């Protein structure tokens, strides 16, 4: 049975006539206890869906901020198993907020794909976004994930032409993640109009919700992108909030609050997107 | 290109870019359409007589091919075993085998209408080759190089600057080749319209491993002809060093279906294969994983995080290896062995004294394997080493290790 939490949450947001706020944080950044507290407080701060980044030594599609977030977690001894443990803890108090794990394939492959899928499902994970698994490699993890009852959320980008988009959407479930630009996470969106057009183009080909990510940093960005998109994803800005709160590389008294305050302001942004 | 026998080891990759379970196209969606475009462009180019002629002409008159097959007489006498030959890729223009690939790809980039070239480099040999072909064809060139490598390969950094390239030192991670490759991929994702990524080794997403191998296969093809003329028949053994493995696959590929030709790949054994993260022997000391677009043997920890690896040679300290080598390892066709820093240093010095040739530290790893192998073979047997690069760039490094103050 594929997790329904994602579909339910997008439907609930649509009913409120607003886009969903999707928040990305790196698991275990800057340390496990702080990371867990940040994660646990995201729904109350206003996050509708959570993307939990699985730290990887070589995050080829990420900009410096998220690279450094992953390095902080890894330096603290974080592993894939710890990430799953964080989800398990989160689920003790929250049965409704969808959690999507985002990252790169090798740690999962090393863990063992089948074992990972069953452990992730058991921990309460709803879906996966694996950056370096295009549909050409669907047999690796996408098909087994769908069979195991996990959503497999696919990235589409400005370079995904129409013929390719059909194939990209074929095994996609949960939602479609539109990457707003050709670039790494944390770069700036240069053409908001083009993003809106791309969302319209994708929505013409699928009934799934379309969330837009890469380059959304402020409540204003979220409001602007959220006019067309069913969800807006914010990642780098939140990881930067962690980074700027650190004192001598360690979590400070302001770290958790810094992330939750930014989420609250973004939540306010998505609520005026279509007002 | 490889339409030989059905059971041939030379048939790979398949349409998905797989050599057995290795290879593939594990890249972000942004890059997939580009990789498809590249596959199509290369498939068209390699059967286009105009493209082939232009590349042949450059190989002959710009690079100086064919590279000589040299009988290393004193080395052979010294080791008291098999006759040793060097396939002298270090005599190519720019001093290594890297130009074979650089020329093939720059002509392709031009055909595709690309106007900006990016590359990664470890020792700087590929960076120099790329900067060279960019100068020759008037294209801007950005080379990503780990900050650690920038420091230990200073002469090559200056050479690239003279050739007009922009060098971007990469400080992430340990500042070596894998970090440079990550950064080059980030550049490519951000500049998809005009930029061509000129990968230097037979690794990365399909079609790179097959394409780079094809460009380097001129090494083995020439060798077959030269050896038949010189000695008759085929060599008994081939030896090459393996970082990503482009000179090795270029040497081996021609002979994969010749069962009498034994093949040895020398990996970077660093401080020793038992020293944790102290070597870069991905096949001897790693396990299969997925990085930089392909599945292959990788140095990684229990959690699947990629290790940096270590080698005295900046060109070998890559935690992965080309996927075709992983396939050839598992099939048993090629024997891959680790060579330590010290063994390579000794081989470097011995070659200087006996043959008057300074091999690159990378190639010295291959030579160290020859030094082990030759005495176990008969005097009428033959070994060919791919002398992939020249060692001028390594004189500082070798000096430091031998305690010389410049």
Walk me through the structure.
The complex is a heterodimer of chains A (275) and B (406). With 275 residues, chain A is α/β, with parallel strands linked by helices. Chain A has one domain (5-271): Aldolase class I (TIM Barrel, Alpha-Beta Barrel), CATH 3.20.20.70. Helix content of chain A is 47%, strand content 14%. Chain A has twelve helices and nine strands. Chain A has helices at residues 5-15, 32-45, 64-75, 80-91, 105-111, 113-123, 142-147, 162-170, 192-203, 219-225, 236-245, 255-271, and strands spanning 20-26, 49-53, 99-103, 127-130, 151-152, 154-156, 176-179, 210-213, 231-234. In chain A, strands 5-4-3-2-1-9-8-7-6 form a nine-stranded parallel β-sheet. In chain A, strand 7 (176-179), helix 9 and strand 8 (210-213) form a beta-alpha-beta unit. Chain A is globular, with a radius of gyration of 17 Å. The mean pLDDT of chain A is 96. Chain B is α/β, with parallel strands linked by helices. Chain B folds into two domains: 19-60 and 98-207, Rossmann fold, CATH 3.40.50.1100; 66-95 and 213-401, Rossmann fold (3-Layer(aba) Sandwich). Chain B is 42% helix and 18% strand. In chain B, strand 1 and strand 2 (22-26) form a beta hairpin. In chain B, helix 5 (125-137) packs parallel to helix 7. Chains A and B meet through helix 5 and strand 6 of A and strand 2, helix 1, helix 8 and strand 11 of B.
Characterize the main sheet of chain B. Answer: 6 strands, mixed
The amount of helix of chain A comes to 40-55%
- Taken in chain order, the helices and strands of chain B follow as EEHHEHEHEHEHHEHEHHEHEHEEHEHHEH
Task: Write down how many β-strands of chain B occur, each being a DSSP E stretch of 2 or more residues.
Answer: 14
Sheet with the most strands: spatial strand order of chain B = 3-4-14-9-10-13
